[in-house]
Amino acid sequence: MDTTIQPSPDKIVVLVHQQYDAPDHLSPSALPASPLGLFRHWFTSAQGTVNEPEAMALSTVSAEGIPSTRIVLLKQVDNRGFVFYTNYNSRKSREIDANPHASLAFYWREVHRQVRVVGRVEKVTREESEAYFRSRPLGSRIGAWASNQSATIAEGELDQQINQIKDRFGIKEGDVEADIPLPDHWGGWRVIPNEVEFWAGKPSRLHDRVRYRCREGPQTDPPKWITERLSP
Ligand SMILES: Cc1cc2nc3c(=O)[nH]c(=O)nc-3n(C[C@H](O)[C@H](O)[C@H](O)COP(=O)(O)O)c2cc1C
Fold first, then answer.
1. Is the minimum distance from the CB of 92 to ligand 1 under 6 angstroms?
2. Which of 32, 53, 124, 184 can pair with 188 through a Cys bridge, CB separation 3.0 to 4.6 Å?
3. Beta carbons within 10 angstroms of residue 156's beta carbon
4. 91 in ligand 1 pocket by Cβ < 6 Å?
5. Helix, strand, or coil here: 214?
6. pLDDT, tens digit, for every residue of 52-89?
7. Residues in contact with 109: Cβ distance below 8 Å, sequence separation at least 6, in sequence order
8. pTM of the predicted protein model
9. Whose CA is nearest to atom 17 of ligand 1?
10. Atom from ligand 1 closest to the CA of residue 52
11. Strand (E) or helix (H) holding 84
12. Whose CA is closest to atom 19 on ligand 1?
C-alpha cells in the first residue's frame, strides 16, 4: 500500500515530504548575462534525463482577469522568446488576444529544477508557422484543420470533421503524405520574456532562486538584464 497518500473516501491527503537537491549553486554574479544562456544550459542538460523537457505550463488570463493554465510544447527559443503552436481560435488564443501577457513554467523533476517565464505574447510570422506546420506529421496537420480546439463537440463529430478534411484535400486511406496548407486559424505564439526565474531545489526547502528582469522593457535590442537572488 502507498503510505504517502492517506486512504480516505472523501479526500486525498498527500503525506510525503519530497526532498530536492539540485547540483546548482545559483550566484547572480556568476551567471550568463542573458537568461537564454542559462536556459540553454539547463534545457540541453535536461534532454536525455527528463521526459519531455519541452512540456511547459502556459498560463493566460481572460479579459475578466480569470487565469487558466494548460500544458503546451516549446518548439523554439531564441533571443526573441519562447514559441509554441496552437489553434488561434482556442481558449488560450482568445485570452491572449484579449490580454497579450502570459506565463510559462517548466518543471524538471529529475534534476530538481524549475523555470518561470513571464512576458508579452505576439504571433510568430506566417512564414514561421508555415515552416513548422510543414514539419508536422500528416495526421497532426489534418487534426489542425479538423479540430475547432476548445469548442464543445458531440460524440463522433471529430471523426466526421477529419473525414471531411481528408475528402477536401483528396487524402485516401493509406496515404502517408499530402500537400496540406497551413490553416488561417493555426500558428505560433511567442512569449517575449521580461522576467525569467530559475529555481534549483535544495534540502529543507531552502531553494536557490535567481530572477532575470529586463531593465528597460523587452523592446531594447539586445535586452539588458539584471539578476536578483530571491528568498526561497
Ligand atoms: C504534454 C502535452 C503537450 C501539449 N502540447 C500542446 C501544444 O503544443 N499545443 C496545443 O495547442 N495544445 C497542446 N496540448 C493540449 C493543451 O494542454 C490543451 O488541452 C489545448 O491546447 C486546449 O487548451 P485551451 O482550451 O486552454 O486553449 C498539450 C497537452 C499535453 C498534456
1. yes
2. 124
3. 8
4. yes
5. strand
6. 999 999 999 999 999 999 999 999 999 999 999 999 99
7. 50
8. 0.95
9. 71
10. 1
11. strand 81-87
12. 70
pLDDT in tens, 89-124: 999 999 999 999 999 999 999 999 999 999 999 999
- Residues 6 or more apart whose CB falls under 8 angstroms from that of 157 comprise none
Q: What is the residue-wise DSSP string for 10-22? A: T--EE--------
Q: Do the Cβ atoms of 157 and 163 come closer than 8 Å? A: no
Phi and psi at residue 134, to the nearest 5°:
-60, -30
Least confident of 21-35, 90-104, 122-136: 21-35
Please tell me the distance from the alpha carbon of residue 56 to that of residue 74, in angstroms, as a whole number: 7
- In order of their start, the domains of the chain are 21-133+183-230 (2.30.110.10)
What is the C-alpha separation between 8 and 26, in angstroms, rounded? Answer: 41
Catalytic annotation on 205? yes
